[in-house]
Design goal:
The structure holds two protein chains of two kinds. By secondary structure, chain A is mostly beta strands. Chain A has strands at 5-7, 10-13, 19-24, 31-38, 42-50, 53-56, 65-71, 74-79, 88-95, 102-103, 107-111. In chain A, the strands form two sheets. In chain A, strands 2, 4, 5, 6, 9, 10 and 11 form a seven-stranded mixed β-sheet that branches. Chain A has a four-stranded antiparallel β-sheet with strand order 1-3-8-7, with no helix packed on it. Chain A is globular and about 40 Å long. By secondary structure, chain B is mainly beta. Classes of the chains: A mainly beta, B mainly beta. The A-B interface holds A 4, 31, 33, 42-43, 45, 48, 50, 55-56, 91, 93, 95, 98, 100-106 and B 34, 36, 41-46, 49, 90, 96-101, 103-106.
Chain lengths: 112, 113
């Protein structure tokens, strides 16, 4: 298996623009997680899905953030409009049942 | 609320020396504990996990960790580090389903020749 695949790896955008981050989880995994990593706050769980259904989005910082999982093999995290303080590395992770999570390589987002 | 403390932000050790990274947790029930490693520009890779049973768990790359309930600790150890072990290490705690893992702030490990 190729693992969790995220795209793009790097994204530079101007403040106010819409940003969409993409994630393809490992086949057969029924949980998907979106994390954000910053120097100040470390790794934060933003939202997670179970069987494509959002279960807990309490970590989503603002209404500017939204996430979808239209099917078992694809998820998006969208920021609209983006702000410089959204600059971070965003990780997607997936897992099967109660087993450990596997992380993607992350998307480094820079908002200028 | 669950929390994880990694008291050492940065540790430097010589290649071939032993290593211990500290992790203390706060959790109201039986914790499920994990150590992840993150190499520069990469995602997190699971080193080892503790769910139950033997409190000394073996992981990949020669790492091991010991769960000590009385000290609320889950320290990571390696008897002899290699230059390739230079990375950031994260301890995490979560409930049975580990849906909401809480990560520590990480310990950056530097290896010197």
């Amino acid at each position: 298996d190729a693992g969790v695949i995220q795209s793009p790896r790097h994204e530079v955008t101007e403040m106010g623009q819409e940003v969409t981050l993409r994630c393809k989880p490992i086949s057969g995994h029924d949980y998907l997680f979106w994390y954000r990593q910053t120097m100040m706050r470390g790794l934060e769980l933003l939202i997670y899905f179970n069987n494509n259904v959002p279960i807990d989005d309490s970590g989503m910082p603002e209404d500017r953030f939204s996430a979808k999982m239209p099917n078992a093999s694809f998820s998006t995290l969208k920021i609209q409009p983006s702000e410089p303080r959204d600059s971070a590395v965003y990780f997607c992770a997936s897992r099967r049942s109660v087993f450990e999570a596997f992380f993607g390589q992350g998307t480094r987002l820079t908002v200028v | 609320a669950q929390s994880v403390t990694q008291p050492d932000i940065h540790i430097t050790v010589s290649e071939g020396a032993s290593l211990e990274l500290r992790c203390n947790y706060s959790y109201g029930a039986t914790p499920y504990l994990f150590w992840y490693v993150q190499s520069p520009g990469q995602g997190l890779q699971l080193l080892l996990k503790y769910f139950s049973g033997d409190t000394l768990v073996q992981g990949i790359k020669g790492f091991e960790a010991e769960f000590k309930r009385s000290q609320s600790s889950f320290n990571l150890r390696k008897p002899s580090v290699h230059w390739s072990d230079a990375a950031e290490y994260f301890c995490a705690v979560g409930p049975l389903g580990n849906e909401k893992l809480t990560f520590g702030t990480g310990t950056r490990l530097t290896i010197i020749p």
